[in-house]
Each structure stands twice: as structure tokens, then as C-alpha cells.
Amino acid sequence: LRNAIISDVHGNIQALEAVIAAIKRLGVDQVLCLGDVVGYGARPVECVTLVWETCRSVLLGNHDAAATGRGSVEDFNPVAKSAIEWTRDAITDRESGYLEGLPYLFNGGGYAGTHSTFSDPGAWKYVFSSLDAAVEFKATGEEILFYGHTHYPVVFTLEDRRVVSQRISELDLSPHQRYIVNVGSVGQPRDGNPDACFVIYDNAAQRIEYQRVPYNVRSAQRDILETSIPRELALRLSIGR
Ligand code: ZN
After folding, report:
1. In this predicted model, what pLDDT tens digit does every residue of 46-59 receive, in sequence order?
2. Nearest 10 degrees: CA dihedral of 203, 208, 214, 219?
3. 161 C-alpha vs ligand 1 centroid, how far in Å?
């Protein structure tokens, strides 16, 4: 199966539409979404609708949980909190009901997905370091783990009990190693590259490829600036931070 794995769309319909178009060109059997469909961006309703009709599996993110009231905004910074309050008003019971029912984990047999961590998915902790990744390798037995949440594309490899992190654009997977793959963010990349980011995982060829897709950033920014969402959330899209 050729899987497209997307995450952290964050209400950015311009980025999501560009990514779905790229996925269609690339020939993919199924699309998986690791959560945070809403929050930060100005088009949450359209993003929920498109993810809902396109993805085989969709997982719950912390912003999705907060937008429905299932999760709290306690740990959110003031800017994120303000965007969530706007999002709560913008979505209807239809989107809220859909997001509320999303699961924390996906298991594809040999590979698995979550928004934040496998060790404690409801705590919304961040996997940034090799030390964080080591905890996750222990928490689940699947060989290949996909996650999002940090908006930072990186691969952690476990070989002989040593965890190594690398930033790469493609990787042939070895049966003697395990992997934790951050698929990056569709709608709010934070690695200095403003292009939308996602991963193609071919589980027959055992290969992952990162894809970067340019999209109409100005249009997404204009949408944000027309709302009461804090304007820094528009500005950061052009620098990918
Ligand atoms: Zn996110």
C-alpha cells in the first residue's frame, strides 16, 4: 500500500487543497491524518469536510480536542488559546461532533500513528529529542511509528538500542531497525520552509519520502487577517516558523 500521511492541517484550506492535489498526482492508496485539523487557521469547517471525505483514518489532535470542548486550553499559549476560542464559534455541531469522536491511535499492522505520543497520547507531550523518542520506542511494539504535533519533520532510528535523529527527504527502511517519523505539518510548518509538508509511506517497498508542496500562502494569510485570530498566526506562515 502506498500511504500518504498528513498532520497538523490547522484550518489552512489552501495548504490542504494543494496537498490533496499532490497526493492524487502521486498515486496513493490511502490517506491517513494524524490530527490537529483545526486551530490557528481561518477555514476549519472546510478543512474538516475535506479531511473527512478524503482520509481513511483521522486521529484526534490537541487543538481538535480543545475546539470541541473535549480537551482544555489550559496548556495553550495566549495566541493559540485565542485562535481556539475563535474556532469554537466558527465550527458547527457537525464538525464538532466529528472531531469529538476521533481516536488517539491508529494501527496498520507493523506501523502505527498518533498525534503526540504513544506512551501517553492524551497528555499531548512533545517528541523533540532522541531521549523523548526512546520512550516512544518502548511504549509500542510496531516497527514504524508516525506522529505530528511538533510541526517539525524528523526521523528517529533505533538500532542496537541507540536512537539517532536525522532530517532527510527520503529513506529506505531496514528490517533490522525501528523508526519514529514526524510527518511535518500541512498547514503551519515550523522548520523554516513555508511549503506544506507530508509523507508518502510505501509499505511494500518499505520506503518513506517527504513531500513539500508550495501553496497560496497569501490567500491563507488574508483569510486569517479577516478574522479576530491573532495576526502573528498569519505572519508566521510566510517564514515557516
Ligand atoms: Zn499542531
Report:
1. 999 999 999 999 99
2. 60
3. 29
Query: Any idea what DSSP says for residue 145?
Result: E
Looking at residue 25, its amino acid is: R
Look at the pTM and tell me if it is higher than 0.85: yes
Nearest-angstrom CA–CA distance, 82 and 80: 5
Distance (angstroms) between ligand 1 centre and the Cα of 35 equals 8
Kindly give the distance from the C-alpha atom of residue 53 to the centroid of ligand 1, in angstroms, as a whole number: 21
Ligand 1 centroid to 151 CA: how many Å?
Answer: 6
CA 158 – CA 131 distance, rounded (Å)? 11
Contact 44, 187 (CB under 8 A): no
Give residue 188 CA to ligand 1 midpoint distance, Å.
8
Q: Which residues pair with 5 in a beta bridge?
A: 32, 199
Task: Give 34 Cα–ligand 1 centroid separation in angstroms.
Answer: 10
The answer, yes or no, to whether residue 74 has pLDDT greater than 90, is: no
Q: Report the separation in Å between the CA atom of 192 and the middle of ligand 1, taken as the mean of its atom positions.
A: 16
